[in-house]
Amino acid sequence: MPESGGGGCCRCCCSFIFTSGLTALFLWLSLRTTSPACALSKFYIPLNQTKNQTTLEFELRLKNTNKDKGVYYDPINVTFFDSPNRSRSIGSSTITKFYQGHKKRATKNGTIANIDRDELPGNGSTAFFWVDLATSVRYKILMFKTKRHKIRVGAQFAVNGTIIKVYPKDIKLKSNADKIRSYCGKMGVFFANFLVLDDARFWTYADD
């Protein structure tokens, strides 16, 4: 009888731990958010204008990668530099704030005027530029909004002699913070699975 009672208590504790682990994992997966995917799809500076001043034209593509969460964007600041080391800024443009539903895509266009053509690299040859994107977002989960999360991404890209983006594919904008969050998320899933499997193994031993 004492052994039976001890076994029942052990099963009860294991069941509680197992259920708590599954509940915590479910909540973590439900509340976990992923940053929007940002890409530069167009970059163009016409050089055939008669005036020395020209205008930069660009296009961004933003995708909400969350399956069941909306995204509220604050104003998006986009800055271009004439080299990957970001020593000199060409100019900046701001995209107004907007809301994006779950799994939705958005295309945003912008311009930067009064750029001195003579100071631009790449006249007649391939050159490399850099783009920075900075904003803050809030995620809509059911009827609630999260706190603001800062996003700072960027990328190097090549342009040809007429100052047009060389590659037809979108240039994905990335940050080291995104890579760190992705790594932490994978480790979180690994440890959660490890705990669940360990609880299940302990439960099996208790039944034996």
Description of the molecule:
The protein is α+β, with helices and mostly antiparallel strands and 208 residues long. The chain is 30% helix and 39% strand. The protein has two domains: 1-31 and 184-208, no CATH class; 35-174, Immunoglobulins (Immunoglobulin-like, Sandwich), CATH 2.60.40. Strands 3, 4, 5, 6, 8, 9 and 10 form a seven-stranded antiparallel beta sheet that branches. Strands 7-2-1-11 form a four-stranded antiparallel beta sheet, with no helix packed on it. Helix 1 packs antiparallel against helix 2 (176-207). InterPro entries: NDR1-like (IPR044839). The chain crosses the membrane at residues 12-31. Keywords: Membrane, Transmembrane, Transmembrane helix.
Helical amount among residues, as a percent range? 25-40%
Q: Spans with pLDDT under 50 lasting ≥5 residues? A: 178-183, 199-203
CATH topology (fold) name of the largest domain: Immunoglobulin-like
Order of helices and strands: HEEEEEEEEEEEH
General form: elongated
What is the count of distinct domains?
2
- Approximately how much beta-strand content do the residues carry? 35-45%
Mean pLDDT: 80
Query: What CATH architecture of the largest domain do you see?
Result: Sandwich
Q: What integer value in Å does the Rg equal?
A: 25 Å
Please tally the β strands and state the result: 11
Largest sheet: 7 strands, antiparallel
Specify the CATH class of the largest domain: Mainly Beta
Structural class: alpha+beta
What is the count of helical runs? 2
Distance from N terminus to C terminus (CA atoms, Å) equals 16 Å
In CATH, what is the homologous superfamily of the largest domain?
Immunoglobulins
